[in-house]
Amino acid sequence: MKLLINIDHIATLREARGEFEPDPVIAAGICEIAGADGIVCHLREDRRHINDRDVRLLREVIKSKLNLEIAATAEMIGFACDVLPDMVTLVPEKRQERTTEGGLNIITHKLLLNDVIQQLHSKDILVSLFINPEPENVDNAVELNADIIEIHTGNYANAINEKDSINELAKIGTVARLGAELGLTVTAGHGLNYNNILPIKNITEIQEVSIGHSIISRSVFTGLQKAVEDMVNLVR
Ligand code: PXP
Questions:
Q1: In terms of residue numbers, what domain contains 189?
Q2: Is 69 a catalytic residue?
Q3: Are the C-beta atoms of 129 and 104 separated by less than 8 Å?
Q4: Of 150, 190, 205, 208, which is the active-site residue?
Q5: d(C-alpha 29, C-alpha 22), whole Å
Q6: Mean pLDDT, consecutive 10-residue segments, the chain of 236 residues?
Q7: pTM of the full predicted structure?
Q8: Which of 2, 10, 69 most suits a substitution to test ligand 1, by most atoms within 8 Å of the C-beta?
Q9: Domain total for the chain?
Q10: Catalytic residue flag (residue 190)
């Protein structure tokens, strides 16, 4: 299983002072040295952490792969087509949320997503759809010609007892198998940490995970390189 590191919260810390450090571009280099397979950042409409300069520099600097998370708005799609990340993950975005709260509502936004996916494909950018673990989302992702699905693992991560956790894991497993059968690349993310990653790793159809908060939090105490290496050791 591959590990992509979301570095948004390095930028959150920078923005806490509105100055220039810590720099997410330097963080990305350290993540790569520590064995990360790619870097993820979410350019939000309100630029609350990652900003345009970060994404442009990351595009130039990183040697692994850049996964740009964005909402499917004209501004963001235009930016992505200019910067050319290796892949774009389309996520729903609400101004007031602290973090992405759920997967895309594909049915409601099908026409828009169809158009956006075509625009990104015309620039050879792979497209991932962030989805809740429901089988109909996989069918819709295939219909829309998406390349990748990222299964939202938030409910699994937040499960308050073992029964709920097992149920959520089963849903993730079903959707992962369906996605792989239908030819999609299957990834997962949200709320994954050092304690809950192993059952996800055991779902062999999941090729990649995207993890941010737990790794950046641990890095405050252990240093970023060690925090990434510890997670690399768990996912490999
Ligand atoms: N995947 C997506 C689509 C996300 O929006 C986020 C949070 O930015 C993550 C993965 C990473 O989640 P976490 O920070 O909880 O590891």
A1: 2-235
A2: yes
A3: yes
A4: 190
A5: 13
A6: 98 96 98 98 97 98 97 97 98 81 90 97 98 97 98 97 97 98 98 98 98 98 98 97
A7: 0.97
A8: 69
A9: 1
A10: yes
